[in-house]
Design a protein that fits this description.
The protein is of the alpha/beta class. It folds into two domains: 1-18 and 66-107 and 153-234, 3-Layer(aba) Sandwich (Rossmann fold); 20-63 and 109-146, 2-Layer Sandwich (SIR2/SIRT2 'Small Domain'). The protein has helices spanning 28-31, 34-37, 40-45, 47-63, 68-79, 94-98, 156-165, 184-190, 217-232, and strands spanning 4-9, 83-88, 103-105, 108-115, 121-123, 142-146, 168-172, 194-199, 211-214. The strands form two sheets. A six-stranded parallel β-sheet has the order 3-2-1-7-8-9, sandwiched between helices. Strands 5-4-6 form a three-stranded antiparallel β-sheet, with helices on one face. Strand 2, helix 6 (94-98) and strand 3 form a beta-alpha-beta unit. Helix 5 packs parallel to helix 9. It is globular, with a radius of gyration of 18 Å. The two termini are 18 Å apart. The protein binds ligand BV8. The site of ligand BV8 has 37 residues, from loops.
């Protein structure tokens, strides 16, 4: 039976690529009220504000490049003699840009557009507007294809299945404050996985991990990947 590593990533893995986190000092949620820009109610109240928020983040993400942590995870997927599955809370495309293939965006992605009327999905334009007609049904019902608070994250069945089979569960660059992602460590532990937190500092859920390594992702992630590959190539 091949070994399986499940990796959860959050905004902290992209911090050193210049993309803001949410809850750190000067994080996004210190500048915007998440109820205004990351909920369906906020979008209904002021769609132009929400579109501007995601257009700005899409422009930032388009300028960003993968850092040593993203690249180390891509190396792990290529060289590890088992399965490596990344579940990311992030909406940037930096894991794919680094070469990772087995990636699930549980909170959607900035490069996706969704039609509220017919649920058609297509690649988001750099600048999205509320009046953009859906390419499929032609209705002006465009929204970013991201999962807001109160909405159901993507791929929950696939994720639960993966957590039940994981030998190792690694959480990287997330504060452990958003559910259901914050529960994944308990789910993996329940099924016997070895759990590891790689983060700048202890997250809200740090005590739930069997192993923790603290420091910037560009240092602790490549080191952990090197240790994991050395361990499996003995
Ligand atoms: C759902 C959208 C039902 C896209 C996001 C009360 C109690 C418990 C739960 C709830 C509650 N009230 C409401 C809820 C549910 C709610 C929730 O969890 N609220 C929280 C605020 C309490 N959750 C939901 O609504 C979710 N849906 O529950 O549906 C359901 C569930 C399952 C099955 C069926 C039905 C939907 C949540 C998704 C919301 N959308 N984003 C976007 O705009 O990006 S969430 C948003 O926060 C981002 O997606 C982000 O990824 C996510 C988590 O944040 P982090 O990634 O952790 O970022 P953060 O800034 O917090 O932390 C950064 C970390 O990195 C820090 O630890 C820092 O130390 C570290 N770091 C910084 N620099 C570095 C670093 N680490 C390493 N190196 C560095 N250089």
């Amino acid at each position: 039976m091949t070994a399986k590593i499940v990796i959860l990533t959050g905004a902290g893995i992209s911090a050193e690529s210049g993309l803001g986190t949410f809850r750190d000092v000067d994080g996004l949620w210190t500048k915007y009220d998440l109820n205004d820009v990351a909920t369906p109610e906020g979008f209904a109240r002021n769609p132009e504000l929400v579109m501007a928020f995601y257009n700005a983040r899409r422009a930032n993400a388009a300028e960003a490049t993968p850092n040593a942590a993203h690249k180390a995870l891509a190396r792990l997927e290529a060289d590890f003699p088992g399965e490596v599955f990344i579940v990311t809370q992030n909406v940037d495309g930096l894991h794919e840009a680094a070469g990772s293939r087995n990636v699930l965006h549980m909170h959607g992605a900035l490069h996706g557009a969704l039609c509220k009327a017919c649920e058609h999905r297509w690649p988001a334009p750099p600048v999205m507007s509320v009046t953009d007609p859906c390419p499929h049904c032609r209705k002006p019902a465009t929204r970013p294809d991201v999962v807001w608070f109160g909405e159901i994250p993507y791929g929950m069945h696939v994720i639960s299945e993966a957590l039940s089979q994981a030998d190792v569960f690694v959480s990287i660059g997330t504060s452990g404050e958003v559910y259901p992602a914050a529960n994944f460590v308990a789910e993996a532990d329940h099924h016997g996985a070895h759990t590891i937190e790689l983060n700048l500092e202890p997250s809200a859920g740090a005590s739930g991990f069997a192993e923790t390594r603290f420091g910037p992702a560009t240092e602790v992630v490549p080191q952990w990947v090197a240790d994991e590959l050395a361990r499996t190539q003995k």
